[in-house]
Specification:
single chain, 533 residues, alpha+beta, FAD/NAD(P)-binding domain, 7-stranded mixed beta sheet, 16 helices, 19% strand
Length: 533
């Protein structure tokens, strides 16, 4: 069965307990979205079903397991942590006041261009009732400058033009200094061509060439580039250009987004886990895989805390460190060139998520999410009770607020306690009413497990296919010719990995959708060709 992409965003179902939350607009997919059909084949497995291992229970692994199981493949999913979700999993904590809460990696925007991720989530809830829309994507600089995307047109090219006209960072004087020729490559972003042109340049240097207004550079583009958990000076300009295409000039969904209305495990992964087990998937959480050994008959042996198990194929849906470690421990996996490229993969710098349960509320007009710049290491502030049920219940009971602070691309030698204290100090600058608030409890997540997309690193990134036709790779670190990024890249490559295996067995896989794979306007594409001349 081919599951359609998301053609609407959350309905009003389940909203009565927080009726003040805004509903997302009911809109369909971008009419210019690209359809990516799978190779032709039968509707499902006939005869004895092959047995596939999926290693990793994050978005990529869940997508791969879903597409395989729906078509009759026997699937065993191995996840080393206690629950599903990968980097978006969660853990139970008991607060100082006795309340049991779920600590997660925090705020993630589920953009409406994430067709394949949303299609995955529809398996558990066809109406996507677990998502709710936030009304704006506000940005604030310490200088007092503010930006908003609530009133920016969504249809390209008016989206980019509208942003420039409505933003206080684009003054006439500053715009007159810009180098429009250097910006022309943004008008026709294609994959993999954008990597051939811009992977050798950093995002910061590319923006410097264009001479974007410095205020816009810091307030908007730096906030966006740091969503890759990297400093703009290290991030490949190709990744930033692709992001510009996905959100501004390649799609009509704009930069507004949805968020889960409960913590990730309850809203997303537990329902999807039930869907998978209902399709016969053997889900083994708390089960670390140590090695993958190719077999003479073309299959693999997966060895880990569960013992040894034979499979006909495997999908490696791991984060950067996990993939590097498993490949290093599996000396017969792949060929020397592939293994060396995996070894060179890098992880983005550490980041901090601090969640604070405060004894008093933030001001009622504070947004659910705010991107920040110029406030030290603070990159954004979320007020969770604006959208998350668990936080809303705590806030209603206590009269307080649940506030989350993110700081990306920190130094590896950062003094953790001092950095946590500095974020709290910056919060009082952003929202002064928190200055005298008592912290009822605090939870801090220090992580360094996101992929880094460095200047010149594109060719080293693995593709879905490996030298072994029985071994596939999936995840947001994977290189693909489709215009996808972040969580959508994880979901898309998970489906692509399943499709590649299904094609071996003569079965038709999952149809995919992406934003258009080139600039939408023939006039703008022609202007972009001028830059390449």
């Amino acid at each position: 069965m081919t599951t359609p992409p998301p053609d609407a965003v959350p309905t009003a179902a389940g909203r009565s307990r927080r009726s003040a939350r805004p509903a997302a607009p009911r809109r369909g997919r971008d009419r210019r979205a690209r359809v990516v059909p799978p190779p032709p084949g039968r509707a499902g497995i006939s005869g004895e079903a092959p047995h596939t291992a999926v290693i990793g229970g994050g978005i990529a692994g869940l997508a791969a397991a879903t597409a395989l199981a729906e078509r009759g493949v026997r699937v065993t999913l191995y996840e080393r942590e206690a629950g599903l979700g990968g980097r978006l999993s969660g853990r139970q904590v008991q607060l100082a006041d006795g309340f049991r809460a779920t600590m997660t990696r925090g705020f993630h925007a589920f953009f409406r261009q994430y067709y394949n991720l949303r299609g995955l989530l529809r398996r558990a809830d066809p109406a996507l009732g677990m998502l709710t829309g936030l009304p704006d994507y506000p940005l604030r600089h310490s200088s007092g400058l503010r930006d908003s995307f609530a009133h920016v047109p969504r249809t390209p090219p008016w989206s980019a033009l509208g942003f420039a006209l409505l933003s206080p960072t684009f003054t006439l004087r500053e715009m007159a200094r810009m180098n429009p020729r250097a910006a022309l490559p943004l008008l026709d972003v294609r994959t993999p061509g954008v990597y051939e042109r811009l992977d050798g340049v950093s995002a910061r240097d590319f923006l410097d060439r264009i001479r974007f207004p410095e205020a816009a550079h810091h307030l908007a583009f730096e906030v966006f580039s740091r969503s890759f958990f990297a400093d703009p000076g290290e991030l490949s300009a190709a990744e930033m250009a692709l992001m510009f295409h996905i959100y501004f000039l390649g799609s009509s969904e704009g930069l507004l987004f949805d968020v889960p209305d409960e913590p990730f495990p309850q809203a997303l992964w537990e329902p999807l886990g039930r869907y998978l087990t209902g399709h016969g998937v053997a889900v083994h959480t708390g089960c670390a895989v140590e090695t993958v050994e190719p077999r003479p008959d073309g299959g693999v042996t997966v060895l880990g805390s569960h013992g040894a198990a034979r499979h006909d194929a495997v999908v490696l849906a791991l984060d950067t460190a996990g993939l590097r470690g498993l490949v290093a421990a599996s000396p017969r996996l792949g060929d020397p060139d592939w293994r060396e490229r995996v070894r060179r993969l890098r992880t983005a710098p550490p980041f901090l998520v601090s969640r604070l349960w405060l004894d008093r509320p933030v001001a009622p007009d504070r947004p659910g999410f705010l991107g920040t710049s110029g406030f030290g290491a603070l990159d954004n502030v979320s007020v969770l009770e604006r959208w998350e049920g668990e936080a809303a219940r705590w806030a209603s009971r206590t009269g307080g607020s649940v506030v989350e602070l993110h700081a990306y691309a920190l130094r590896t030698d950062t003094d953790r306690r001092a950095q946590q204290d500095r974020l709290l100090d910056q919060l009082s600058r952003v929202y002064p009413e928190t200055r005298g608030a008592k912290v009822v409890d605090a939870q801090h997540e220090w992580r360094a497990d996101c992929p880094l997309f460095p200047v010149g690193g594109y060719q080293d990134r693995p593709t879905v296919r490996t030298p072994d036709p029985a071994v596939m790779v999936a995840g947001d670190l994977v290189r693909t010719d489709l215009p996808v990024a972040l969580m959508e890249r994880a979901a898309t490559t998970g489906f692509l990995a399943a499709n590649a295996l299904l094609a071996r067995w003569g079965v038709r896989g999952q149809t995919l959708w992406t934003v258009p794979d080139r600039g939408r306007s023939a006039v703008l594409r022609g202007m972009a060709r001028v830059a390449g001349a």
